[in-house]
Design a protein that fits this description.
The protein has helices at about 15-30, 35-45, 70-80, 105-110, 130-140, 150-165, 200-205, 270-275, 285-295, and strands at about 50-55, 60-65, 85-90, 95-100, 120-125, 145-150, 170, 185-190, 205-215, 220-225, 230-235, 300-305, 310-315, 325. It is of the alpha/beta class. Helix 2 (about 35-45) packs across helix 5. The protein is globular and about 60 Å long.
């Protein structure tokens, strides 16, 4: 006798997979400081935002999608959707344009954003729309704005969001310029790596707003004092994201030590972070000596200040002996 014939409904594979992912995120401690995010991850179905994705196979990419005629392939697609892993969702000429971030990292970032009821949030990098949906669940769609440079990405995100009943403001535009027509914002969260801190964001923030963004292979959390002044430290976690489109990166690729780095330091992830934070401004050998002398500092000892028309990174103290100008 089947389970259904015995009076029980057949198990929904997507719901079961989502519940397992929620348990995995719970165990990681990602939302320990704000457990209400658990409700959002329980409620929002990731598979509706990732109808297909790409996995690296033999130097190329293989497309997995939910409408594959082969049931085993569909099952493999669903397992991948609800794995705690990032998913490549858009490619162009072999270059990654957009991805769905690792869910536990998303949970950690949303928790670190420190949202409060009534906060207006701007998301830089719409992606699949999944992160915006989590924000909509927590805050309400009227308080959420998400922006992306690529029309095909915003169109897809808008469609995915509507499919689960959310209609936040989805804007096509340069994320570095913010969305002034929707300002002011209480929180800004970026899901793409920045080459610099966009000054336009600060001008669109309320006093006391919090900005959380991937920068130099880390996550910087800035508190905005006013339109020209923000300051904050890096979170402990590493973070590697697709670069912000519409901006130009300068210096070496983040996390890639140059040939001048002493061999004994090239595999040290925290040294690579320092080099990514100071591209072209700190000689690799000098960086290694500093890093060793200061006790191999963790990310949270570093910070960024934006004030008086300039920006700089620092170790331990914004006015201390170790500061580096930023673009």
């Amino acid at each position: 006798m089947s389970a259904h014939a015995g009076g029980r409904e057949p198990e929904d594979p997507a719901a079961s997979a989502r519940a397992a992912l929620v348990r995995e995120i719970e165990e990681s401690g990602a939302w320990a400081a704000d457990p209400r995010w658990r409700e959002a991850f329980e409620a929002v179905p990731r598979h509706l935002f990732v109808p297909y994705y790409y996995v690296g196979v033999g130097g190329g990419y293989e497309r997995r999608w939910g409408e594959d005629p082969d049931p085993h392939s569909r099952e493999r697609w669903l397992r991948g959707v609800y794995a705690d892993a990032p998913l490549a969702t858009r490619l162009r000429d072999g270059e990654l344009l957009s991805s769905s971030s690792q869910p536990s990292l998303m949970a950690m970032m949303l928790t670190a954003l420190e949202v409060r009821e009534g906060n207006k949030v701007l998301e830089i990098g719409a992606g699949t729309g999944y992160n915006a949906a989590l924000l909509c669940h927590r805050l309400g769609e009227g308080l959420v704005t998400t922006v992306d440079l690529e029309p095909e990405i915003t169109e897809s995100a808008r469609r995915h969001l509507a499919a689960v009943g959310y209609r936040p403001a989805v804007v096509t535009g340069d994320g570095a310029r913010g969305v002034p027509e929707r300002a002011p914002f209480d929180r800004i969260i970026a899901t793409c790596a920045l080459p610099s801190i966009p000054r336009a964001w600060l001008a669109q923030c309320t006093p006391g707003a919090r900005v959380l963004a991937p920068f130099a292979t880390g996550l910087i959390a800035l508190r905005v004092r006013d339109t020209g002044h923000a300051e904050g430290r890096f979170l402990p976690s590493a973070a590697y994201f697709v670069p912000l489109r519409g901006s130009t990166r300068t210096g070496p690729e983040p996390g890639q030590p140059s040939g001048g780095t002493p061999a004994r330091g090239r595999e040290q992830e925290l040294l690579r972070f320092l080099l990514a934070l100071t591209p072209g401004r700190l000689d690799p050998a000098e960086a290694y000596d500093l890093w060793e002398r200061e006790g191999r500092p963790e990310r949270e000892r570093y910070g960024v200040t934006v004030a008086d028309g300039r920006a700089w990174a620092w170790l331990d103290d914004p006015g201390g002996p170790y500061t580096w100008a930023l673009p």
